[in-house]
Amino acid sequence: TGQGVFCIDVKPWKGSVSAHNKVWHVQVKGEDQNFTNTCIEQMDDPLKAITTKTTHLCSHLKRSGVAVRSSLFFPRVIFLSPDCRLDEELMKRRELVSHSQIEDFLRSFREGYVAWMTDAVTPSWISGHLSYRQMESAREVLRRVGTWDMVQLQCGEQLKGDYQGCQFIALDRQETDTLEFSRVKTLSADSLWFLLGHVPKVTVKMYKRGSHSWLGKSLNATATIPSNTIVMFRINGEEFDAKIPANTIHSITLSI
Fold first, then answer.
1. Same domain, yes or no, for 135 and 198?
2. Which residues contact 109 (CB under 8 A, 6 or more apart)?
3. I need a surface site. Which of 53, 83, 99, 220 has the fewest CB within 10 A?
4. Alpha-carbon gap, residue 6 to 57, rounded angstroms
5. Buried b (16+ CB within 10 A) or exposed e, 224-243
């Protein structure tokens, strides 16, 4: 909306909800004829999760050329059930929307004619809202959002997340969908080359997106880089980038 980019998570939880450090407790009471049974279930912090996703979305839009201030991204967690009761401290958090607040929350997205006209003629840096151009650019980027990028390691392990880049590799992910890493063969053992001050190399082949033929995928570019080059990759769910040595990578598949 013109107010900003809202990232929303929806929870169907029932019971009393409270936060305890890194986990939340959902307490549900079940009554029988003779006794009351209380069940407490531990949940991952949904506010932290949606805030992390919001930060990732902001970074993705900026990398895609959409100039939107970080302050215009708003994480929200909506609790759908009328039987869900947030404790006093959680009720103070504007990022959390209880069942009784849902109607007001949805109503806040409605814009009157005056606001609509004002946003149409006022630059975003003055109004503090998203301009029509920014909203359309963001929508266009979101339409192209695909799956996570994936790193296939030499050991067979797969990592899903967001490829951040590599010092010696320049690519356009609109044109490239796969990077294949292979060690450059040498006549001598790597240990001997290390003693002589030589750093082994890795060849990176970049293949064109969507180009398939009976000969295989079309090669877009090739780069030869030091084997100890670091590839930056944000693993799904992590707060910081992982530093992966190039010689441990088999391939990287890029989403659009």
1. no
2. 1, 3
3. 83
4. 10
5. ebebebbbebbbeeeeebee
In the beta sheet, which residues pair with residue 75? 7
**CA distance linking residue 151 with residue 171, whole number of Å:** 16
Based on the domain organization, do 230 and 181 belong to the same domain? yes
Number of domains present in the structure of the chain = 2
Task: Write the DSSP symbol of residue 182.
Answer: E
Q: Are residues 112 and 208 in the same domain?
A: no
The model's pTM is: 0.54
Based on the fold, state whether residues 66 and 91 are members of the same structural domain: yes
Asked whether the beta carbons of 169 and 244 are under 8 A apart, the reply is no
| Average pLDDT, integer, range 66-71 | 86
121 with 42, same domain: the answer is: yes
- CB of 233 closer than 8 Å to CB of 131: no
Q: Between the CA of residue 55 and those of 30, 77, 93, 251, what are the distances in Å? A: 39, 15, 18, 26
Residues 136 and 49 placed together within one structural domain of the fold: yes
pLDDT at 192: 58
The residue count of the chain comes to: 256
Domain end point (choices 97, 119, 143): 143
| Long-range contacts of the stretch 97-103 (C-beta < 8 A, 24+) | 102/78
**pLDDT category, 250, cuts 50, 70, 90?**
very high
The verdict on 132 and 214 lying in the same domain is no
